[in-house]
Amino acid sequence: MGVANLLSTSFNGESRNSMAQAFRSTRVLTPGGLVPATLLVEQERIAEVRLWNDVPAAALLRDFGDCVLLPGLVDSHVHINEPGRTEWEGFWTATRAAASGGVTTLVDMPLNCVPETTNVEALEAKRAAAQGKAWVDWAAWGGVVPGNASSLPALAEAGVPGFKCFLIHSGIDGFQAVNEADLRLALARLRGTGLPLLAHAEIAGPVNAATEALHTVGADWRKYSTYLASRPDAAEVDAIALLIRLAEEFQTPIHIVHLATAQALPLFAKARERGVPVTVETCVQYLWFAAEEIPDGATEFKCAPPIRGPANREALWAALETGLIDMVTTDHSPCPPAMKRREEGRWDLAWGGIASLGLALPVMWTAIARRGCSPAAGIERLAAWMAAGPARLAGLAGRKGALAPGADADFAVFDPDAAWTVAPEHLHFRHKLSPYLGAKLRGRVLETWLRGSQVFSANGFADSPRGRELVRR
Ligand SMILES: [Zn+2]
Questions:
Q1: d(CA 449, CA 283)
Q2: What is the enclosing helix (H) or strand (E) of 104?
Q3: CA 304–ligand 1 middle distance (angstroms)
Q4: Helix (H, G, I), strand (E, B), or coil: what is residue 225?
Q5: How close is the Cα of 408 to the center of ligand 1, in Å?
Q6: Which residue from 26, 64, 332, 424 has the least number of CB within 10 angstroms?
Q7: For residues 299-318, b (16+ Cβ closer than 10 Å) or e, as one string?
């Protein structure tokens, strides 16, 4: 079980565009569940989902045996950093990392590039920078910063799927935090567009107070416990309460990115009961790691909000499993290794951001298997959390995130039984520094297909990139 059995029929000379392709396996995640099926693909899209043995004679067949075929993942929270900080990451490296992990759509955050994506000129600069470098499809969130509310309609018109803001300093001086007054101006512009406002939900008050107190007592900033104490749960809870209040008042969708604290879960439950248009994601690192396991000085684990304790992690899993948390993203946010200041190991001085793009599927698969989930239910849940959910957030439902007629033929070929240990040669992002190095995982992406073309396999990458920007219309 698990090894692809590639029985391609002979290629009759027609061009791939005109010839239908058929992809089959005994385990295809269709809208009806994980079943034996054949995907019939024409013109880059899934034309039909057929029975396993119902392959048209004229179609080029690829048979993946018992491997799992699941929808290409959609990661709606990635920092690509280009243009302007391509030495941190970039379209070429980020999208190759994505392709290696079965991720076929990335949505880029607006802050780490120069210029920041807070107006149409900056969006155009990003589009120019991405030309010929994208190995998977991508889109760009616009940014909301103090004073740019008047730029939001033009960015929406230019095709961004939504906007991102910070309620606390982002680490980037060109992308300042918004306060309630700024949020009101932005939401007044977004009301009625249907576009979501994504928010980094921590407010400064509790973080500043905790940090000051830690400095006063001379806390050891090499200790992870010091960093964790500097970003208390209350910073998230207070920010989320404000954002839920505004989503309800403006009846405009707000999405909370990277929820780390389980203490905010009751707020979401109550908001759901009242029909408030609020959604929430958590990230792979909050579901995999726990504070007690993080070595002092190991700043490759630094992210904000911080990774919290094991009981908190368990509560996040429970909320995912009941559907209270809508989706899982990576928040892949790398930097040059020197900025992690690993020698000093000072959590207060290191850049925050975890690099993981390409690892999310096997990490989540390993975690979900440990939780005793059956393989079929596990694959269905992962696809809901990491493909369909983020696709819906980014306005891509129907086009991405499902193996269904009409959708782009994006899929991963996944061997659920492969056992492996993460090593630098498995990382395709620019800097091979990640807290997942050394992790023992189950499940491996063997191939990734984008709109009917193979972009990644065990032999490496395709000849050239063919990713496109997904412009909202
Ligand atoms: Zn982020």
A1: 24
A2: strand 103-108
A3: 8
A4: helix
A5: 26
A6: 424
A7: bbbbbbbbbbeeebbebbbe
CA–centroid distance, 257 to ligand 1, in Å, is 8
List residues bridging with 279 in a β-sheet.
255
Does the structure show a pLDDT above 70 at 14? Answer: no
Q: Is 77 helix (H, G, I), strand (E, B) or coil?
A: strand
Angle at alpha carbon of residue 385, lines to 379 and 388, rounded to 5°: 95
Chain centroid, CA 188 distance in Å: 28
**Residue listed under structure tokens 């992406």:** 445
Taking the centre of ligand 1 as the mean of its atom positions, its distance from the CA of residue 76, in whole angstroms, is 10
Q: How far is CA 390 from the centre of its chain?
A: 7
Is the pLDDT score of 186 beyond 90? Answer: yes
pLDDT of 13 > 50? The answer is no
Q: Are 80 and 89 in contact (CB under 8 A)?
A: yes
Q: Which residue has the tokens 């439950």?
A: 269
SS3 (DSSP) at 424: helix
What is residue 473's predicted lDDT score, i.e. its pLDDT?
82
Strands (E), 183-290: 197-200, 254-256, 278-283
**Separation of 367 CA from ligand 1 center, angstroms?**
22
Q: Which residues contact 273 (CB under 8 A, 6 or more apart)?
A: none
Pairing of strands 45-51, 68-71: unpaired
Distance 414 CA to ligand 1 centre (A): 27
The pLDDT of residue 5: 35
Looking at residue 18, its pLDDT comes to 63
Separation of 117 CA from ligand 1 center, angstroms? 14
- 125 CA to middle of ligand 1, Å? 20
Q: What is the DSSP string of 36-63?
A: EEEEEEETTEEEEEEETT---TTSEEEE
Put the strands of the sheet holding 73-78 in their side by side order.
73-78, 103-108, 137-140
Which range among 5-19, 62-76, 108-122, 263-277 shows the weakest confidence by mean pLDDT? Answer: 5-19
